[in-house]
Amino acid sequence: MNLIAEAADWKGDNDASRHMAHYLGNSGTGMELPVDKMMSDVPDFRAHVEGSIAMHQDAWREQALAEFRRNGGQPVSIPVETTNRDFSFDQSVNENRFFAVGSTRSNVTGVVTVVPGADGEPKVGLDYQANAWDRYNWDENKGVDINLPWGGDIGIPDGRMARLHTTGIAQEFDVAGSSSVKHYDLGGSAPNQVPLPAPDEPGRDGGRTDPGREQQEAR
């Protein structure tokens, strides 16, 4: 499995390699998920996050405007949070995210603000973060096929990987992270037609020179 982790790193599946190496390192300490980069790498995950906002934005806007009116037109701020939703990464779409995380829970947290505009009309905005979290573990009665960089596949039963944890050779760990703070205009008569902001620049891939590697051990 250490060789497979090295091979994944060589292929460019850096997050999958880093998480596997951390599992084999047997410390059990948590690791951070790069949520901005996950949204950039996998458009379906970004759409999943945007869908969470779309389900609530009209209600959030109306609630904030009602409070603004009750407050005599003074600025208001209302904390908001979506329900938790599951998302599963597809191996055929992004192998790196599939092996690094597999499935994750996510939600959106933020603050809706209303301030009086220069024209006297209220301006409604949302400052938010996307959050994701999971447990890096291996379940019984499942398995994965890993494409080897030198050709061919290798099938790995999850139960065999889980046994490394139960026998003390490796250790499961929590993964969690939040995106950078983004601003979304909730103004206008049809706020759901306002495009959400693009993901932040995801930065470098998590290669051997990436400072994120200091999170892992025995690498």
Structure report:
This protein has 219 residues and is α+β, with helices and mostly antiparallel strands. The chain has one domain (2-135, 150-189): Beta-Lactamase (2-Layer Sandwich), CATH 3.30.450. The chain is built from six helices and nine strands. Helix 1 packs antiparallel against helix 2 and helix 3 crosses helix 4 (43-70). The protein is elongated, with a radius of gyration of 21 Å. The two termini are 13 Å apart.
Key terms:
Beta-Lactamase; 28% strand; 6 helices; alpha+beta; 33% helix; disordered C terminus; two-stranded antiparallel sheet
Number of helices: 6
Estimate nothing, just give the exact number of structural domains. Answer: 1
Proportion of residues in β-strands: 25-35%
User: Which bin fits the share of residues in helices?
Assistant: 25-40%
Secondary-structure element order, N to C: HHEHHEEHEEEEHEE
Shape: elongated
Backbone CA Rg: 21 Å
User: Which second-level CATH architecture applies?
Assistant: 2-Layer Sandwich
Number of strands: 9
- What does the main sheet amount to? 7 strands, mixed
Q: Work out the oligomeric state of the chains in this entry.
A: single chain
Separation, N- and C-terminal Cα atoms: 13 Å
* Poorly predicted residue ranges: 204-219
Query: Which secondary-structure class do the elements indicate?
Result: alpha+beta
Mean pLDDT: 82
Instruction: Give the CATH level 1 class.
Output: Alpha Beta
Examine the coordinates and then state which fold CATH places here, giving the name of the CATH topology: Beta-Lactamase
